[in-house]
Amino acid sequence: MAVERACWIMPDALNAADVADLARRVEELGYSRLWVAETLGRDPFALTAHWGAVTSTLGLASGIANVYNRHPGVMKQGAHTVAEQTGG
Q1: Are 45 and 34 spatial neighbours (Cβ–Cβ below 8 Å)?
Q2: Please, what's the largest Cα pairwise distance for the chain?
Q3: N or C: which end of the chain has fewer CB within 10 A?
Q4: Contact between 42 and 14 (Cβ < 8 Å)
Q5: pTM of the predicted model, to two decimals?
Q6: Residues with Cβ within 8 Å of residue 18, at least 6 apart in sequence
Q7: What is the mean pLDDT of residues 20-43?
């Protein structure tokens, strides 16, 4: 049984290029999952879609999207869009 490693980050202090580099580096280091917290800085769905464009093997997730700030329909739209853009 292979051991999977996950990384959970809050990249609010990074610019878009650094966020993309970070995702690529996490993948290069052999992590299988990359999670992002929903904070005041960035939309987690847009960020995971961005990561999906620059990585090929990482499982991507928000951990956790704030259900008090997002209507369930908007959550569904975001998740559907990311799944569509990243192939899953």
Answers
A1: no
A2: 39
A3: N
A4: no
A5: 0.84
A6: 11
A7: 93
Domain assignments of the chain as residue spans, ordered by start: 6-86
- Residue partners of 3: CB distance under 8 A and separation at least 6: none
Residue 68 in tokens: 């008090």
CA–CA distance, 14 with 67 (Å, rounded to integer): 25
What SS3 string covers 12-30? CCCCHHHHHHHHHHHHHCC
pLDDT digits (tens, 9 = 90+) for 10-28: 888 899 899 999 999 999 9
Give residue 87's region: left, alpha or beta (phi > 0; psi -120 to 50): left
Would residue 65 be called left, alpha or beta, if left means φ above 0 and alpha means ψ between -120 and 50 degrees? beta
